[in-house]
């Protein structure tokens, strides 16, 4: 099965390893018998669909969820069924990959205008006057 992330990016089922583990939280007696939580592993270094730029952004976005070897590990235990937790983990991975594919626009540094600088200094002086007026009154 293939999971479409973007129109030009599709992740195959071979790139994803899903294991089921015991979940904490609600579930009654069922929680002790059935492994409903999902641990999803995605090897970003071996995935041919990702570019090197996407891998670098994915490393930044994933943070501690990515191992040194370049494997993204996501755990999903929000729901009480395996299938819904699996769908949730895959959707979270797809969203992470969408964010990694998006290239942020670079900010162009601009300088404040003369009017803005003057207004800032006037406001600063006014705030200083207000704070000075809060002090203990003098006997003059």
From TrEMBL:
Please note every region of biased composition (Basic residues): 105-119
Q: Where is this region: Disordered?
A: 105-140
What are the Prokaryotic-type class I peptide chain release factors domain coordinates in residue numbering?
A: 22-38
Protein's GO biological process = rescue of stalled ribosome
List the transmembrane segments: none
Q: Which GO terms describe its molecular function?
A: peptidyl-tRNA hydrolase activity; ribosome binding; translation release factor activity
Record InterPro entries: Pep_chain_release_fac_I (IPR000352)
Could you identify this protein by its name? Prokaryotic-type class I peptide chain release factors domain-containing protein
Organism annotation? Novacetimonas maltaceti
UniProt lineage: Bacteria, Pseudomonadati, Pseudomonadota, Alphaproteobacteria, Acetobacterales
């Amino acid at each position: 099965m293939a999971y479409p992330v973007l129109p030009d990016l599709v992740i195959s089922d071979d790139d994803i390893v899903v294991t089921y583990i015991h979940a904490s939280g609600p579930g009654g007696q069922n929680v002790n018998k059935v492994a409903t939580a999902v641990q999803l592993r995605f090897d970003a270094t071996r995935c041919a669909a990702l570019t090197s730029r996407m891998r670098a952004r994915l490393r930044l976005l994933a943070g501690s969820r990515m191992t040194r070897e370049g494997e993204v590990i996501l755990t999903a235990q929000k729901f009480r069924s395996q299938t819904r937790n699996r769908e949730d983990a895959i959707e979270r991975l797809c969203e992470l990959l969408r964010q990694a594919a998006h290239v942020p626009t670079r900010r162009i540094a601009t300088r404040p205008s003369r009017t803005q600088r003057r207004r800032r200094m006037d406001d600063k002086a006014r705030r200083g006057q207000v704070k000075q007026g809060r002090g203990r009154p003098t006997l003059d």
